[in-house]
Amino acid sequence: MIRHLVLFKLNEGVSRDEARVQAGAKAFEELGGVIPELDFWQCGWNITERDIAYDFAIVSDVADGDALQRYIAHPDHQAAAAQWREFATWVIADLES
Amino acid sequence: MIRHLVLFKLNEGVSRDEARVQAGAKAFEELGGVIPELDFWQCGWNITERDIAYDFAIVSDVADGDALQRYIAHPDHQAAAAQWREFATWVIADLES
């Protein structure tokens, strides 16, 4: 099993309330039920005010490296990521679990 | 429940094999069994080569905001974080789950 972690930082001046940002969050929220490779899916907004805090995060599990690649290449993932690329950056870590 | 996520990036020129880095990883690995506020604890090295990949990550669950503060203030957490401050930076996200 691989745990795929993604932390998103909204670009300077972008707020969570913007329609495009809300739509992007919704797109990720729905991804869990759409992509078969996802054995676990959790995403949501950060709730802690700290200067090292990012804004949004995904915690997801896939079976292995091949499944991770299929998830990343999946059209619905690509579409959601394309939305977020307009207003955020992100970093990842993949843990063997 | 709050899911506390931390992604660590080793400083420029620091490698995972360094003794201080291995000791820091061990300190975090042991934290899960030491701090009572931790309802779930997972940590480990990133396994994916991507330019947006960080190096090490923690996934942990605590009951609520007070428990999160007690975890952060716990001497063993402070000691482990102090080790990592020597050779890495990190970002966090806290999700309500």
Quick rundown:
Two copies of one chain form a homodimer. By secondary structure, chain A is of the alpha+beta class.
How would you portray this structure in words?
The structure is a homodimer of 97-residue chains. By secondary structure, chain A is α+β, with helices and mostly antiparallel strands. The first copy, chain A, has one domain (2-91): 2-Layer Sandwich (Alpha-Beta Plaits), CATH 3.30.70.100. Chain A has helices at residues 19-31, 65-73, 75-85, and strands spanning 2-10, 40-45, 56-62, 88-96. In chain A, strands 2-3-1-4 form a four-stranded antiparallel beta sheet. In chain A, α1 runs antiparallel to α3 (75-85). The radius of gyration of chain A is 13 Å and the shape is globular. The first copy, chain A, starts with a strand and ends with a strand. The mean pLDDT of chain A is 97.
Characteristic terms for this protein:
homodimer, 97 residues, alpha+beta, Alpha-Beta Plaits, 4-stranded antiparallel β-sheet, 3 helices, 34% helix, 32% strand, globular
Question: Topology of this structure?
Answer:
The structure is a homodimer of 97-residue chains.
Chain A: E1 2-10, H1 19-31, E2 40-45, E3 56-62, H2 65-73, H3 75-85, E4 88-96
Antiparallel strand pairs in A: 1-3, 1-4, 2-3
Helix pairs in contact in A: 1-3
Pfam family, one (chains A, B): Dabb
InterPro entries (chains A, B): Dabb (IPR013097), Dimeric_a/b-barrel (IPR011008)
Domain Stress-response A/B barrel (chains A, B): 2-95
